[in-house]
Amino acid sequence: MSEVYAARRARLRDQCAAAGSAAALVSRPANVRYLCGAVPPGAVLLLGPVQDLMVAAEVPATPPLSPPAPPPSGSPRAEEPRLLVLPGADGDPVVAAADLAATDGAESLAVEEHDLTVARHRALGAAAPRLRLADLGRCVEQLRLVKDDEEISCMRIAGELADQALGELLESILVGRTERHLALELDRRLVDHGADGPAFPTVVAAGPNAGRPGHLPTDRRVEEGDFLSICLGADYRGYRCQVGRTFVIGPSPADWQVELYDAVFAAQRAGREALSPGRAYRDVDRVTRQVLNAAGYGDALEPCTGHGVGLEIDEDPRLTPSAMGKLDACVPVTVEPGVHLPGRGGVRIDDTLVVRPEADGGPELLTITTKELLAL
Amino acid sequence: MSEVYAARRARLRDQCAAAGSAAALVSRPANVRYLCGAVPPGAVLLLGPVQDLMVAAEVPATPPLSPPAPPPSGSPRAEEPRLLVLPGADGDPVVAAADLAATDGAESLAVEEHDLTVARHRALGAAAPRLRLADLGRCVEQLRLVKDDEEISCMRIAGELADQALGELLESILVGRTERHLALELDRRLVDHGADGPAFPTVVAAGPNAGRPGHLPTDRRVEEGDFLSICLGADYRGYRCQVGRTFVIGPSPADWQVELYDAVFAAQRAGREALSPGRAYRDVDRVTRQVLNAAGYGDALEPCTGHGVGLEIDEDPRLTPSAMGKLDACVPVTVEPGVHLPGRGGVRIDDTLVVRPEADGGPELLTITTKELLAL
């Protein structure tokens, strides 16, 4: 694996050099992980003119705020960046890294302005006043867009783990249990099956909460007649996935429930079928949206119908009406239209898929839980 | 409660006016919550020259990344800031808020430079080019330092919930179970007893992992002879607490375990006893540290022996050798020295306490689980 990381760093170094920066400082945690693999929490990467360095604080945030890094696979190699741990409690790794870059003779340093706060950026500038600071922009995020086989196979496993946890939950009795407890049970099952943890806070939303964007579990109990929407994902070696389904509780769904479900299902299928290399992000969003507009739910639809996924649960690209850019092969995205009717509930159906050319069979579905409307 | 929030906003407004800014933009989530109570995830607060506004994106991050806000208590009041929800997927609330401040005639706007990224700060400046941007600094964090009775009673409940969950776990069989499973069980028990969730990722560390700073649960199983260190906290209405204890697994601890435990226990007690209004942060750290230095564990000690706690698990003040400032009454802090011996394990003992004057009985301990060395 360490060759993989070294190759990623080499690509970034080439891009920085082309943009006129001899040194770059990567601080966004998912970007550091992409370029180095296992790193201590809060570590940053300096791609320097003379040497590469990982810089970490002696004490990670206590208690820990970021997921654990996997142990490095294979033996350490010469091309791995050396790890420098700052003594004491007060050192900021980005400030120390800028100082080191200046000491190594760098004249300019590209930093991640979308990650650094204004205060950290200023402290960094003050520590190395002769360094010209440039913006690395979303350069590493761009490299992360297209996933390699190793990354996709981690995501495939993450998808299986989430499907498994959800499938088991559906076999148990749901009526009378709270959203919170169902969410905790899903988290436990994810870990039981080998996930490093949930990919994001698990969503369980019953009755009027169902389908609500950004809902977090409450003490609402599942009742007969409810819509129940569940959205979960697994983290497997840092890679994530997302599966969301909506069910009806009780022997048979009401007419309005069937109608709403069918509309969201049709929209989600249209979005999935639109995934192909070269297709504009906004086109995928548009075809999803059109189905729901035609069914009269346009006003209740959310502004984003899907997003990229990988080391972060919500990464580039975004599938929205104003998104710029086109899908590539081997880009994993979610397709997740949702409609929420205030006071009544709603429906969300989320899948994670990998964009593949038609010749390879079209988009690869990572989350295979049935999308039939189940009455539980 | 809404009078409380209005009074907090009035204090901030006075401080801003004194510093020459007629308007302030608060973006750090815990600060927004402190000033407004219940807010949608990602919402920011504009304290404007004409009106106060909360500005939120139409779609919160999907899936949700921040804890749910509690429902507002009491009826809405005239002094509550109006909520403005930005349509579409691409609006940044801080940019919209700056634009509104300029429209309302503000000439300067104080922003939280320790929260805003360089990129957001620039976008905000571009949206309102005539606005002079100033730094609000950690003004709201300073207001948050001293807690009122309502805040402390939430933290007291959070402490009880964590003690309860930990106490129940200790009654079960631990040998053979993995760190991950024990952590999940603690999380479930916290929620069972009424917590809104864990206050931070629960730490369970067995054997050589015990006492390691920043450890997150692994598949390591608990074995006879292990040190087992556990650190957890509850989130109750947004307020947090932290309790950490270390146990020995098996009928009787080894001599080195007793010796290490006694040293950390003595250090932690010294730190707790040093908590009083007017005492310098670094003094509390020093008395803790001195005990472990004298016992020969100085090198293995972490650079931070405690920190503030409230709406965030790790907030001001920090108890470190270089910290500046003095404790006040009604400031909750942790005292949590830890020593980790590589390859062998270690000991952490963490409590959350509220600083109180001697006349009121001295520091109030919120986490009352026994600190005797239990052999389980």
Automatic annotation (TrEMBL), chains A, B:
Residues 61-74 have a biased composition (Pro residues). One of its GO terms (molecular function) is aminopeptidase activity. Gene3D superfamilies: Creatinase/methionine aminopeptidase superfamily, Creatinase/prolidase N-terminal domain. Residues 154-356 form the Peptidase M24 domain. Residues 8-146 form the Creatinase N-terminal domain. Keywords: Aminopeptidase, Hydrolase, Protease. Residues 61-80 are annotated as: Disordered. SUPFAM superfamilies: Creatinase/aminopeptidase, Creatinase/prolidase N-terminal domain. It comes from the Bacteria. It holds the Pfam family Creatinase_N. InterPro entries: Creatin/AminoP/Spt16_N, Creatinase/aminopeptidase-like, Creatinase_N, Pept_M24, Peptidase_M24B. PANTHER family: AMINOPEPTIDASE, CYTOPLASMIC PEPTIDASE PEPQ-RELATED. This is Aminopeptidase P family protein.
